[in-house]
Every structure is written in C-alpha cells, then in structure tokens.
Amino acid sequence: MDDDGNKRLSMAEFRKGVADFGLDLTDEEVKAAFNQVDTDHFSPCCARALNESRLKLIKAAFQKMDKTGDGQITVKDLKGIYNARQHPKYQNGEWSEDQVFTEFLKTFEAPNTTDGVEFLNYYSGISNSIDHDSYFDLMMRNSWKL
C-alpha cells in the first residue's frame, strides 16, 4: 500500500489499498480501520489469511535466516547472509557492520523482538498486496534465494 515508498502509510494510500483489496467500506469504516493499523504491520482486521503455500515460503525464508536454529534472528544469524558492507552508511564509515545488521532487523521486527512473529506479519502484509500465488512464490524465491 505504501505507494510513495516512504515507509509510512497515509490515509489516501490506505483508502486506495482498501479499495484494491475489494473491500466496500464507508469513509467512517476506512478511518476506523486506519486507526487500527499498527506502525509495524496491519491489524488482522485488514489481512487476508495466508494459504499454506505462502506460509511455507515465509517460514522457509525465516529458517534460512535463522542459521543457529533457535527460532530467533540475530546479528550472528545474518552474518554471511546479508552483506552489510554494501550499505551506504557502512561504506561512509557512519555505521559498523553490527549497526547495519541491527537496522536491517528492525525492518521486520517490533522493538526488542526477533522471534519471527513480526517477520511473518511483515510478509503477510506483502502477501495481501499480491493477488497470484505464482507471483508471491517468485518474489519470495528471488528475494531469499529459496
């Protein structure tokens, strides 16, 4: 739904997204739903259920990241998967590799969590914007080299 890519959801973007999902809501209902949107992921009221094939891909991506197999994604897990040295703030000396990894983790997780729940919610939100299973499959396989 974030059409302008600023990582914030405006009311106009949300209204358009609601229409794109085929929901026929009044302005008041759209506003009420918008107020339920969390800063990290959509409220379950707006999400379609993941089918088994999409859930399996999301779990596979998480497992690929979870090198230690402890059910959590940590900086240690990311070493060798995510190349922090390509990040502009690492290249200009502003951040260390660990700082880049920590910021990368924040892309998927709520503050102080790394258990994969937010990772699942993040990709559930993305899944809602992709109509065809084949495209979601392609996107996940290309993104995570599954």
Walk me through this protein's architecture.
The protein has helices spanning 11-20, 27-35, 52-65, 75-78, 88-91, 97-106, 117-128, 133-144. Mean pLDDT is 76; it is low at 38-47. Helices cover 51% and strands 0% of the residues. The chain is globular, with a radius of gyration of 17 Å. It folds into two domains: 1-37, no CATH class; 49-144, Orthogonal Bundle (Recoverin, domain 1), CATH 1.10.238.10. It has 146 residues and is mostly helical. InterPro entries: Ca-bind, EF-hand-dom_pair, EF_Hand_1_Ca_BS, EF_hand_dom. Residues 1-24, 53-88 form the EF-hand domain. Keywords: Calcium, Metal-binding, Repeat. Pfam families: EF-hand_5 (PF13202). GO terms for molecular function: calcium ion binding.
Quick structural overview:
It comes from Macrostomum lignano. Keywords: Calcium, Metal-binding, Repeat. This protein is mainly alpha-helical and 146 residues long.
Helix content: 40-55%
Write the CATH architecture name of the largest domain.
Orthogonal Bundle
Number of strands: 0
- Write the H/E string, N to C: HHHHHHHH
Strand percentage:
under 5%
CA radius of gyration: 17 Å
CATH topology of the largest domain: Recoverin, domain 1
- Total domains, how many? 2
* Major β-sheet profile: none
Number of alpha- plus pi-helical segments? 8
- The CATH homologous superfamily of the largest domain is termed EF-hand
Q: Could you list the spans in which at least 5 consecutive residues all have pLDDT below 50? A: 38-47
* Termini Cα gap: 25 Å
- Category from helices, strands and their pairing: mainly alpha
- The best one-word shape is globular
| CATH class descriptor of the largest domain | Mainly Alpha
Average pLDDT: 76
